[in-house]
Amino acid sequence: MYKFIICFIAGIGAGLGTGFAGMSAAAVISPMLITFLGTPAYEAVGIALASDVLASAVSAYTYGRNKNIDIKNGLVMMVMVLLMTLFGSWIASMVPNTTMGSFSVFMTLFLGIKFIVKPVMTTKESMGAVSKRKRLLQSIICGTAIGFICGFIGAGGGMMMLLILTSILGYELKTAVGTSVFIMAFTAFTGAVSHFAIGGMPDVWSLAFCIVSTLLWARIAAKFANKASAITLNRATGVVLAVLGTAILAVNYL
Q1: What does the pLDDT look like over 22-34, one tens digit per residue?
Q2: What is the reported pTM?
Q3: Are 58 and 14 in contact (CB under 8 A)?
Q4: For the chain, how many structural domains are there in total?
């Protein structure tokens, strides 16, 4: 029962973060499992990535049905993210003490405050004003940067994508989140497969509980997000991220 409660609570945070902001479940589930269940770190990350796959996929489906995904440029960015994550990981393996595990936690808290204080009010019309060639080039450059940073420091993929899509590429918030979860579904699947192939199958009950809970709450959050107005979505996303960031900081450092 204790294991179910911890996994269910972790799934709530991960699902809301995924559905509202395209955040990786690893930012919530991993520290929860490690701290409260004593799960080995590598196994906890594998469970979190597996939970990410279906949660991101169902969120992407919901955003896609509401035409809030930029699939063409998302695919380009996804390829660059996957390639550069591998390259960044290889570089990091040769440089001592480069990991920054707390990066994604502070990024989550920072973005939460940002969306509350300075909401993203870009419209789809202004997004459409950017030329296709410029958008493609931006996707390649930003995908390269996101992938390398994530591979090098081992954290922050979903948050990095959301920050860059909204602040640098000028995406409308719903389209930014939709594109982010679309990419995360593929990157999480790749990560989960590699973790299980190297480390073996994790605890089956923890895996099942986390997947079901994350999937359920991601679906709920995504449906709400696609019906909400821009200002409401900004505030809801900001509150969710700020609360999650604060909670994860408390779990890790208090």
Answers
A1: 887 777 888 888 8
A2: 0.84
A3: no
A4: 1
